Amino acid sequence: MISLNVNGKTYKLDVPSDMPLLWAIRDNLKLTGTKYACGIGECGSCTVHVDGKAVRSCGVSVEDVLGKKITTIEGIPENNPVKKAWVDEQVVQCGYCQPGVIMQVSAELSSGSDPHKVIDSLDDVICRCGSHPRIKKGIKTAAKMMRKEG
Asked: What is the pTM of this model?
């Protein structure tokens, strides 16, 4: 039995310790906002926060995150500046990769990263619908919102 802290709740799961965190989140906890796409940690669709840092959940096992705080897209409040900026800037087109992008952007902006560095960090995120220009605009808007709040 493995105990995981996800979105502020503790869950006991009867899963193998080497199971990818992605599958524990999606299949066992039924939190399907975290997406499966490439399965090798390249695209970013499966990004979650582990102790506040962006982590691609398909590449870490549940054993790797024992005792750590895991946050999925479902655990990010609706009034989060990144989520609000995504709505204000109409970032989403198909939306498949967006939960992972929001998770990566929110972790980086929360840690004080410069918005331009955050934009550069998304070079390896695969967005098939071509929302990158709107994603960049959303990052800048979210950074402005966070500066006003701070």
From this structure: 0.91
Q: Give dist(CA 109, CA 143) in Å, integer.
A: 7
The answer to whether domain 81-149 has CATH 3.40.190.10 is: no
CA separation, residue 133 to residues 5, 35, 63, 80, 116 (Å): 35, 22, 37, 21, 13
What residues contact residue 70 under an 8 Å CB cut-off, 6+ apart? Answer: 4, 5, 6, 7, 21, 25, 48, 49, 50
β-bridge partners, 55: 48
Confidence of residue 42 (pLDDT cuts 50, 70, 90): confident
Cα–Cα distance for residue pair 63/13, rounded to 1 Å:
12
- Domain 2-75 class, CATH top level: alpha beta
Place of tokens 């989520």: 83
Q: What is the mean pLDDT of residues 49-67?
A: 97
